[in-house]
Amino acid sequence: MASLRDHATTIISELTRLQTLSSPFSDESNPFPSMIEVGDGRAIVVSQKIDDAILEIANTWHAHAKDVSLASKTSLAEWRQLVRAKFGPALATIDLNDPVDENGKSILAEVRSATIELIEQQGSREHAFGCTLFGDSSIKPFEIGPVRIEPRLDWLARKSSEGAVSKTARRRIERAWEGKTLTNRKPSADSLVEQYLLDTVGTCPFVCSVQTDGLAPEASREKALTAARLALAAIALLWPIPSRALDGMNLVFDRRLYVKKSVVFVGGKAVQMRSSISHLPHGPTLKDGEWETLRTDNKDYFDIAGEILNYVLDPTRGSSRPIMLNTLTQALLWFHEGCRETTTLMAIVKFSATLDALARGGASSGIKRLIAARLGLQENTPIRPGGQTMKAVVEKIYNYGRSRTIHGTNDKLGHDWSDTRSLAEQFAHACLLACFDWAAKNPESNDPKQLSS
After folding, report:
1. What torsion, rounded to 10 degrees, do the Cα atoms 385, 387, 391, 393 define?
2. Per residue in 246-261, pLDDT tens?
3. What is d(CA 453, CA 440) in angstroms, rounded to the nearest whole number?
4. Which end of the chain has fewer CB atoms < 10 Å from its terminal CB, N or C?
5. Closest Cα to residue 334, out of 447, 243, 244?
6. Contact 96/217 with Cβ under 8 angstroms?
7. For residue 77, with 0-12 CB atoms within 10 Å meaning exposed, 13-18 middle and 19 or more buried, which class applies?
8. Other C-beta atoms within 10 Å of 122: how many?
9. What stretches in the chain show pLDDT beneath 70?
């Protein structure tokens, strides 16, 4: 396997070869050369061989970064682009008459240093997503870690006060939200911002904002989306059936309300035409003050949720228990996906993965230990009056619903798994809440195995 020095040598040698050509387009091995800017409006011609070597160097640096925060601050595509861009100025400064090894060592050090410096200069970004949340838009703005949720008028007023939204755009957006028809604006940068804000929020009564710091643009957006989704999942966990609550808590970025239509033919005739909405238009409707009370009564819970969301944005910053947060984050991710899943067996797989993450593996035995430790249910405890025991239910969820489905050996694929899905969600829900509670009461613990002891 070629080393970084080998790839650098390839780049120097290939660049030297290109200099001997009468024209960049006379290279038969690379009839369509590309270019890398070197600064001051200049660029150098490179071959596919150089581009391939740069790509391998970028991949190696990203995968084996000594600074573990490096790989989490950019997407792989962004990292590759940044590394390639920094090769231009570095290659422009070397003397091709110098020894190849020295040049290779020099450009590797310079490119890596310049790329890391550029990443470290990334500032803060605030991502905004329209959000349905509750059926009551009178909720006061609140925060869960780095995620802020506020009624759209409060959000618009805040962004206007910060100078991010002009007075004209604010006035017109407010009119649009009142249901009034807007007159056409002369195309401008401000009119484009106005339209994007209207499209981003849509008909949603809330806006979910996520603040990131020190992340490259694409990594920032993806992490902000994940944090926003997990914030909604954390809120839904406080309801008896989280998947039902979460069905109405949506980011307009992910899910817009639409009508689903189907028709059934029997004997060549249309006998049944049905329509339904894709998901609930909003989450639970609350009484006045109910949400504020819920947040106050569950302060420790929201503190843990906030830690998780901060961990999502930057796993390397400021936490004294990264291993515990890593486990809780993955479990919440799986739970969110299970709640969103429309295929019953796939939902069971994902809820089972929630339990498996909390149990740190160990298959069904590990999950049974987790349930016994956190919920106080023993293997022979009946789950329902006269029904199956905890052991039997867990083994059905994990061994049949999860493992056999994943391995392609589930011979009951066509059966109705809805009851098992419900039980899988109940166990995952209860264990997540119990593990959050344990983590809140044991802030010094960084060992997820303690969740099962």
Report:
1. -120
2. 999 999 898 777 677 8
3. 16
4. N
5. 243
6. no
7. exposed
8. 17
9. 1, 24-31, 65-69, 258, 268-271, 278, 385-386
118: number of Cβ within 10 Å: 15
3-state helix, strand, coil in the chain (%, to 5): 55, 10, 30
Q: Which residue has the tokens 């780049």?
A: 11
Phi, psi of 130 (to 5 degrees): -60, 140
| Strand ranges inside 132-289, DSSP E | 142-144, 147-151, 206-213, 259-266, 269-277
User: C-alpha dihedral over 336, 337, 340, 342, to 10 degrees?
Assistant: -150
Every domain of the chain and the residues it spans: 4-120, 123-299, 320-453
| DSSP-assigned letters across all residues of 293-304 | HHHHHTHHHHHH
Which pLDDT belongs to residue 385? 64
Q: Model pTM?
A: 0.88
pLDDT of residue 137: 74
Alpha-carbon distance of 245 to 231, in angstroms, equals 13
Phi, psi of 261 (to 5 degrees): -125, 145
Alpha-carbon span 119 to 166, nearest angstrom: 31
What DSSP designation does 139 have?
P
Taking the alpha carbons of 363, 369, 370, 376 in that order, is the dihedral positive or negative? positive
Instruction: Classify the C-alpha dihedral 199-246-304-215 as positive or negative.
Output: negative
* DSSP code for 98: S
